[in-house]
Each structure stands twice: as C-alpha cells, then as structure tokens.
Amino acid sequence: QVQLVESGGGLVQPGGSLRLSCAASGNIFSTDVMGWFRQAPGKQRELVAGQIGGGVTRYADSVKGRFTISVDNAKNTIFLQMNSLKPEDTAVYSCTRGRFVLGQFWGQGTQVTVSS
C-alpha cells in the first residue's frame, strides 16, 4: 500500500505562484510513474502534469510554460511548481502515483483558489 499526502494549496492572486508537495510513504519505488491531476467544479478531472516513465514528462496544454513537475526521490516527494496562476487554474489538485500507471494511488487533494 502507498500513502500520499499533499500540501501547499491555498488562495493566491492572479499572476502569483504556489508550490504543491506530495509526500509518499509505503511500498514505493523510484521508478514509479507520478503526476498531478485537478478537478474544477462541474468539470472532469484532468491530467495537469505527469512523469510517465522513460524520462517522459507530460503537461496539459493549458499549463505548459507555467507549471513544472519535479521529483525528490531522496525525500519520496513530488512537487508541482505553479507560476503565473490564472483564475481558471482554480481546482482541487490531487497527486497520484503508480507502479506502472497513474491513478493506482491517490492523495486526498488540496484546494487551489486563484482570485483577486
């Protein structure tokens, strides 16, 4: 089993930045695939950023150039650096991890609200 705990969400003004963290514990491997999803009210959950194996990193078109996913394997933590935030980035952000596919394990989610 794997436990994921997110932190770093909150309220930020448009144009601001936030960094989300997701600490993992349990049966984890440095080769796990990892990522961040988000879900806004009334919308489907979408992949924001993911490290999907083989050195491949994928971003949603809407966040390219603004968001960066990174991994600290020594701390078993993944990060999502979010810059130039927009009101449409408002959502619950959840991290996910899996041995071979995203979505095997999920964190509880953290709210990000972008508003003036």
Q: Helical region count? A: 0
Write the H/E string, N to C.
EEEEEEEEEEE
Instruction: Count all strands and give the number.
Output: 11
Any idea what the shape is? globular
Nutshell version of this structure?
The protein contains no helices and eleven strands.
Please outline the helices and strands.
Elements: E1 2-7, E2 10-12, E3 18-26, E4 33-39, E5 46-51, E6 57-59, E7 67-72, E8 77-82, E9 91-98, E10 105-106, E11 110-114
Parallel strand pairs: 2-11
Antiparallel strand pairs: 1-3, 3-8, 4-5, 4-9, 5-6, 7-8, 9-10, 9-11
Structural key phrases:
single chain; 116 residues; 0% helix; 4-stranded antiparallel β-sheet; globular; mainly beta
Please give a structural write-up.
The structure is a single chain. The mean pLDDT is 95. The chain has no helices and 11 strands. The strands form 2 sheets. Strands 2, 4, 5, 6, 9, 10 and 11 form a 7-stranded mixed beta sheet that branches. It has a 4-stranded antiparallel beta sheet with strand order 1-3-8-7, with no helix packed on it. The chain is mainly beta and 116 residues long. The radius of gyration is 13 Å and the shape is globular.
